[in-house]
Specification:
Chain lengths: 291, 156
Amino acid sequence: MNKFDYYRANTIEEAIQYLDEFDKDIKIIAAGTDLVVRLKQNMVKEKHILDISRIRELKGIYREDGKIHILPLTTHSEILESEEVKKYATVLREACSTIGSPQIRNRGTLGGNVANASPAGDSISALFAEEAKLKLLSSEGERVISIEDFFTGPGKTVLKTNEMLVDIFMPEMTEKEIGFFKKLGQRNALAIAVVNVSVKLGRGEEKNKMDKAVVAFGAVAPTVVRGERVEKALISESLDSPEKLRYIAQLAWREVSPISDVRASLKYRQDMSINLLYEGLLELYKNNWKG
Amino acid sequence: MQEMEINLTVNKKKYTLKVPVNITLLDVIRERLHLTGTKEGCGKGECGACTILFNGRSANSCLILAPQADGAEITTIEGIGSVEHLHPLQKAFVEEGAIQCGFCTPGMIMSSLYLLKENPHPTEEEIREGLSGNLCRCTGYAKIIKAVEKASKEND
């Protein structure tokens, strides 16, 4: 394993001090389900490891002013057990249920998944659909940015070396809003997504009409991407038949720019983006507004 | 290498140990406490051979840095039964022949233990999901699932 010096912060304030002290040469560890693997492979260049896993202020789920806050050190299991999430962040809940394995969900945190910035991160695509915002804090102050503005490439974010993620929040889903998360992996457990799709729709007043649509694809571009053509069509069209949904889902091939790699080819990823989207939309249609 | 003193409770016994910061909890359990029931398979959290209970929840001990285990309460396979008094899960695994080489077995038992604690009467599908973080390369999974079903009936 990499050699490093270990530091433990018990409060956000302490963590920020360490980040300032070792600027650029310090790496944050939350649960470590990803970072420890990379430490073992000597893939971490930072010589100082800052353990934030004991910072109580960074754990928990609460509702405030129409928003649901899921603090970064909340584990995937805790998210799945939360009644608030079950009611107000259903897309995220579905995504968290597919992450890793029970052991990984018991340790891995939402903030860790976000900060890792994998283009295939399951919770990330769901947070796009949930229109989440992130609060970043440093000794220079705090800033709130939209989840879409956080990622710049695989493993890369706008997070400065002296900055940390301190809050993840999103509007509570209303009774009019529905959604889904779909993932295709090589197997069900512990599989990195070949493609994942997250969707949130807001039902309009008219039959078969939506007044809101947020669509996100994971593992098909250097970061999770929004499917804007699909979103526009979901709002402008009357969603009155499976054929219409099929037509809209096919617009997805222009939204994604996947690569071929060990997990899947470009063409397969494109086709599966369309199919997963269609499958999810069809389920929503059948369960919510058909006929 | 930087060393650090950590306190942990393993199988209800308290330990204070000085450990290098760049080893895992699995290393501590096997090399320092000599509890070698917990196995290292892949070392990446994919095979589940290193599964333990960490503060009551199942976890891959190969992915926990030793300093992160400071203050934790840990249960390993050695803590749930003995040769004379097998845990109902261990007994069921033996009776169902859910073991071949045995390397995955401690992890399988620990994941099953956690599953039955959370859900005393799981369906077959729920057992499969509960064991989805554990790989067996010998038997396939049918006998293992049967064994967990059998042990769950003891919860009646």
